[in-house]
Design goal:
Number of strands: 0
Structural class: mainly alpha
Distance between the termini: 51 Å
Strand content: under 5%
Helix content: over 70%
Shape: elongated
Number of helices: 3
């Protein structure tokens, strides 16, 4: 069964909050209590967030390299 758009938006907002608290140094248990989900949900969210960060940084590096190569040409 596909996830509804409203549920996807809610998950995205929760992950944004989880990422913010994680970067502030909160523990997974503290984050779970704050956003009212289980710790295992926070763990899953962090795995997905970190994967997005890795993908984003690789893409940013590729774009920066392309710009530098254009300068050389």
């Amino acid at each position: 069964m596909p996830v509804r758009k409203s549920k996807k938006v809610a998950i995205a907002k929760r992950r944004e909050k989880v990422a913010d608290l994680y970067l502030q140094g909160w523990t997974q248990c503290q984050i779970a209590a704050e956003v009212k989900v289980r710790q295992s949900t926070v763990c899953d969210d962090l795995k997905k967030i970190q994967a997005q960060w890795r993908t984003s940084s690789v893409r940013d590096f590729d774009e920066a390299r392309e710009l530098e190569l254009r300068k050389i040409d």
